């Protein structure tokens, strides 16, 4: 019995019925799993792409490609060039910059593809609807996730959405307690275990607001206080933490949300974007008029 099979069998009792069907298919045909696609596994197990990804995450893997590579390794079929490129093997201390660049591109492309394949679009639509009609939107994030969340705040604000980003937990808690059913609170945390994000999101939930979370781990603590959950797919690598590699996938989710809000609020949002662009245009080099020069 291989290591992956042992891990799956030990995990089965903790899985949902749908995830158990995925496990049964992997155990019944590991070779077919690592040679096939995520869609084929979802079809054979009568589940969905999202369920397959949740199963992979339950195994401690970033997504389906990592499961395929692990199964291929046990089967002795992971030495080919195709597998090396597809798996984006870890970066070594002596790797030349060309290899480092190729590895980073392969890793990020895979993470984006896996995030797109397992993103719950129905939940994304619900969150877009909630943001569009919200009186106010609160955002909670710290560290690397705060940099990404700042982009969400800025872009929603440009669309005319009243939106605030709180990176200090005291300020976040004070704001969260003043929310109500007409408001939305979103916590963004790669690990899903950041107390400074979970606490204000909990306060927002208790105040009656619509709550949502964006995280890389669907079984993390933040999911217990989020009414709506969107997950990314990024893995740890040497010289690069999971939170760093996860920024691109977080930005993908944010792009989807902002685009959806822009669609629903057009043409009002179009006018808002035009006004904000006009306001900052004079501050770009070569765009100042003689009357604006001091």
UniProtKB/TrEMBL annotation:
CDD domains: SIS_RpiR. Transmembrane segments: none annotated. The keyword Transcription applies. One of its GO terms (biological process) is carbohydrate derivative metabolic process. The keyword Mitochondrion does not apply. It holds the Pfam family HTH_6. It comes from the Bacteria. GO terms for molecular function: carbohydrate derivative binding; DNA binding; DNA-binding transcription factor activity. Residues 127-267 form the SIS domain. PROSITE patterns: HTH_RPIR, SIS. Keywords: DNA-binding, Transcription, Transcription regulation. Residues 2-78 form the HTH rpiR-type domain. PANTHER family: GLUCOKINASE, HTH-TYPE TRANSCRIPTIONAL REGULATOR HEXR-RELATED. This is Transcriptional regulator, RpiR family. It comes from Kribbella flavida (strain DSM 17836 / JCM 10339 / NBRC 14399). The lineage of its organism: Bacteria, Bacillati, Actinomycetota, Actinomycetes, Propionibacteriales.
């Amino acid at each position: 019995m291989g290591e992956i099979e042992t891990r799956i069998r030990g995990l089965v009792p903790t899985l949902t019925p749908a995830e158990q069907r995925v496990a049964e298919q992997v155990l019944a045909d590991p070779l077919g799993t690592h040679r096939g696609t995520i869609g084929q596994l979802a079809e054979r197990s009568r589940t969905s792409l999202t369920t397959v990804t949740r199963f992979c995450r339950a195994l401690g893997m970033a997504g389906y490609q990592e499961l395929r590579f692990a199964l291929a390794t046990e089967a002795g079929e992971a030495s080919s060039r195709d597998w090396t490129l597809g798996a984006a093997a870890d970066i070594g201390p002596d790797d030349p910059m060309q290899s480092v660049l190729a590895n980073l591109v392969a890793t990020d492309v895979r993470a984006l593809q896996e995030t797109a394949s397992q993103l719950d679009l129905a939940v994304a639509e619900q969150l877009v609807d909630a943001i569009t009609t919200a009186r106010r939107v609160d955002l909670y994030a710290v560290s690397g996730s705060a940099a990404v969340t700042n982009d969400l705040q800025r872009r929603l604000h440009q669309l005319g959405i009243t939106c605030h980003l709180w990176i200090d937990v005291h300020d976040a808690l004070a704001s969260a307690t003043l929310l109500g059913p007409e408001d939305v609170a979103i916590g963004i945390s790669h690990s899903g275990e950041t107390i400074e994000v979970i606490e204000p999101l909990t306060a927002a939930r208790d105040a009656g607001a619509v709550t949502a979370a964006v995280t890389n781990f669907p079984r993390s603590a933040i999911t217990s206080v989020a009414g709506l959950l969107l997950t990314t797919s990024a893995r740890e690598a040497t010289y690069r933490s999971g939170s760093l590699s996860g920024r691109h996938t977080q930005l993908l989710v944010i792009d989807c949300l902002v685009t959806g809000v822009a669609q629903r609020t057009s043409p009002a949002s179009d006018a808002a974007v035009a006004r904000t662009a006009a306001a900052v245009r004079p501050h770009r080099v070569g765009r100042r008029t003689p009357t604006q020069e001091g």
